[in-house]
Specification:
It is a single chain. The chain is mostly beta strands. The protein has helices at about 80-85, 115-120, and strands at about 1-5, 15-20, 25-30, 40-45, 50-60, 65-75, 90-95, 100-105, 120-125. The chain has a five-stranded antiparallel β-sheet with strand order 4-5-6-8-7. A four-stranded antiparallel β-sheet has the order 1-2-3-9. The chain is globular and about 55 Å long. It starts with a strand and ends in a 7-residue tail after the last strand. The mean pLDDT is about 90.
């Protein structure tokens, strides 16, 4: 999780935004400010051999326990788009080689985002070569 700030010439800090970057998956998500200090994130590679990488978002409860509320999947292979729509998964973005999907836990914390808002906050990490 990365916190982005502006620093003025007189040293005043202004919060800009917070992002979660999954470098190996090639994507990042702009996090709502309301999530600040309330979430934990874990990468789950148990299904990596099937071309599936998952990043699980948890809400930290008052007693310190963690409750899963959202999972973002990076899916590869010939059946990636079918797997992006398994169960309650919803397709976020598809390229020629990778599909990305989100799944909200039915009994999880209400994170305040719907599928369209997650799509708006979801971005691929791109590399720009200069020169």
């Amino acid at each position: 999780i990365i916190h982005w700030y502006n620093i003025s010439l007189d040293g005043q800090r202004t919060d800009k935004l917070t992002t979660y970057h999954n470098y190996s998956g090639g994507w990042y998500l702009i996090l709502p400010s309301s999530w600040d200090g309330q979430i934990a994130v874990e990468r789950d590679d148990r299904e990596n051999h099937r071309g599936e990488q998952a990043v699980v978002f948890y809400h930290q409860e008052y007693d310190g326990s963690l409750t899963r509320f959202m999972t973002i999947y990076r899916l590869t292979g010939t059946n990636r788009e079918a797997r992006a729509n398994l169960g309650s998964r919803q397709l976020l973005l598809s390229t020629s080689s990778v599909a990305y999907a989100v799944e909200f836990a039915s009994d999880g914390w209400d994170c305040g985002l719907n599928i369209d808002q997650v799509r708006d906050r979801f971005n691929l990490i791109t590399t720009v070569h200069c020169g």
